[in-house]
Amino acid sequence: MPSPTQRHVLSALVQNVPGVLAHISGMLASRGFNIDSLAVGETENKTLSRMTFVVVGDDRVLEQVRKQLEKIVTVVRVIDVSSRDFVERDLLLLKVQAPSGPKRAEIRELVDIFRGRIVDVGPEELMIEISGRENKVQAFIERVRPYGITELVRTGRVAMVRSDSDVSIADEAAKAAG
């Protein structure tokens, strides 16, 4: 019986060298895999970067993406984070129309409810920062949309296996490298 289509969060530890992102994203695109979300950044080891991907598909798609990533020389280790107990976050910055008065106060209240921060105040708009799970970020966007979003940017998803997990990704990467 085929497994249902689901969202998979993958973490790839890669060598921190020029062209890795282009190589990996090009390889995935050329094989018809769609990346729902992608975030890349340095790790605690400056020679390595962590790429967090979100791909949608069944277990066969997940296995194919994993196999293709593991073939790339600059990829040190690939982990299916979503198969473990993990924490994930998105970051959102948005500008919303907020003239002085009651509408601005309503928006400030929404920001507080969603545990966000106002990071810039203009005469007619506010810039807001929200971080959290994807559904929280999306819910905030829907709540402020009626006020008039003038600009919006989101990061890709970042994720980390919880510390109480049997084996951390860092432990696995150390084994792979050693």
UniProtKB/TrEMBL annotation:
GO CC annotation terms, alphabetical: cytosol
GO MF term (any one): acetolactate synthase activity
Enzyme Commission number, as recorded: 2.2.1.6
Reaction(s) this enzyme catalyzes, per UniProt: 2 pyruvate + H(+) = (2S)-2-acetolactate + CO2
InterPro entries reported for this sequence: Acetalactate_synth_ssu, Acetolactate_synth/TF_NikR_C, Acetolactate_synth_ssu_C, ACT-like_dom_sf, ACT_dom, AHAS_ACT, AHAS_small-like_ACT
GO terms of biological process kind: isoleucine biosynthetic process; L-valine biosynthetic process
Top-level taxonomic group: Bacteria
UniProt keyword terms in alphabetical order: Amino-acid biosynthesis, Branched-chain amino acid biosynthesis, Transferase
Domain ACT: 9-83
Coiled coil: none
Pathway(s): Amino-acid biosynthesis; L-valine biosynthesis; L-valine from pyruvate: step 1/4; Amino-acid biosynthesis; L-isoleucine biosynthesis; L-isoleucine from 2-oxobutanoate: step 1/4
Family according to the record: Belongs to the acetolactate synthase small subunit family.
Matches recorded under NCBIfam families: acolac_sm, PRK11895.1
Reported function: Catalyzes the conversion of 2 pyruvate molecules into acetolactate in the first common step of the biosynthetic pathway of the branched-amino acids such as leucine, isoleucine, and valine.
Quaternary structure and interacting proteins, as annotated: Dimer of large and small chains.
Name of this protein: Acetolactate synthase small subunit
Highest classification ranks of the organism: Bacteria, Pseudomonadati, Planctomycetota, Planctomycetia, Pirellulales
Gene this chain is encoded by: ilvH
